[in-house]
Hints:
By secondary structure, this protein is mostly helical. It is 66% helix and 4% strand.
Amino acid sequence: MSVFKASFNILKRNLNPFILTLAISIGISFAYSTSSSTPSENVELDKMTIAIFNEDKGSDSQGLTKYLKKTMHVVPLKKQQAAIDDAIFFEKVDYVLTIPKNFSEMIEQNKQPDLTTQTKPNSFNKAYVDSIINTYLTTFQFYREAFPEKSSQEIVQLTTDNVKTKGKIKFDSSFALIKANRSAGKVFSVLAYTMFASIFSLITLINLSFNKPEIKRRNSCSPISNRKFSRQQFLVGFLFSIVVWGVFVSFAKLFSNIRFDQHGIYFILNTFLLLLVALSFSVFISGLISNMDMVSGINNVFILGSAFISGIFVPTEILPDIVTKVAAFTPSYWYAKNCSLIGKTVHFDANFSADFQFNALILLVFALLFFLLAMVTRRDRGGLKISFAKTA
Length: 392
């Protein structure tokens, strides 16, 4: 009980790291939830924001450009690859189209022109805009074959009149479900930094406070043995970590609007696995360091750094393969992978179970590894020592 009271007083005087990471988690979660919210199952597609580089000056390419300006929101953009990449990454444009110089020539020969497009990887915008362009070109070719005596301007006018009819696309409930769950997956993935960093700061703060030389000498005079004291210290850290886990999960659930269905249960289970990893890692590191200044360094280098390379703050699609391979050696990668897996799943089948269990097993291996390392580093202190067999 005295260990709990002392730990509680220590934390009460050092709440700034916890409040900071909680504020970061709330801010990022709010941004993800508002940007990816889906209010209803009936979704109407807005005009896509696109940029067009027309290298062909023929009437055929001009007709396509005019049609896209009527159906899309066309914005100017510098024809530099760096500017294009930045515009796509920061979502200033959804789609970049380049019309080649031989566009009109290919159309005249009834051949399919080779259009260059750039979008985010696996983006729905590409499929949507591609379908509109293909519909226009298919209709254009049909009128050209049906009315060979008409001029290109007349064919363009016939094509535009035919395809300008507007319609509404309604998606079934699975689309809204997938979009909402992917948003929830992003919200929960942020905990790989915020919750991990909070638990690490909490555990190391308590352990380093008790490991001060004057405190250790005073505790050595108490009737509590070093082993019992160490176990009580670990239990206190575990209880406080459970409280931190509950706070962060509650906020994540609030901002993601996730329910206690299968998706919600899997998300919460995944965060509990992360809790075990964070707790064992914190106990291990706090047994190695002796200076509070090193805590912020580990937070920034390992916890925040692994969150970046694991695709939590930066999409893995734009990261080099070597970065992804390095990220696989961190627990944040497997936690984020499970968050993405849960978010994109509609039906929980055998394939989902196999993938989730594999990622969960990797997280448990990380937790066990850090815990065993903690036992080795603290063995000389009489703490956390486990005996598998009785000695004679």
